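Running this now, will post back.
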Amino acid sequence: MDTNAPDTAGDPLDELDDAVAAVAFRRLVRHLRHRHDAQNIELMGLAGFCRNCLADWIRDAGYAGDKAQARELIHGMPQEEWKATRQQPVTDAQIAAMEESLKKNRVD
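Update: finished.
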């Protein structure tokens, strides 16, 4: 079990039909694939998660693939290709924003 997952007891989100949730999740992933201008470091700085986190979360949820396969699924290509063609250099300000953002992540 993911020890970083929040306590969801009584959360109405758990009543959302899995098929509806799956469609929304796929739409989110496809959106992120399209918006490669939204860098992972920026996502981490703003929201405390990124494409790689989504890959980890699907593995936590039972995806049978390894880490590289999960990241390829989310990125829409092998992670090394994504890094080479999409990832921009990281700035000190982006790292600082990410570190501050991660402090806000819920750890239960």
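Residues 18-34 form the longest helix (17 residues). More later if anyone needs it.
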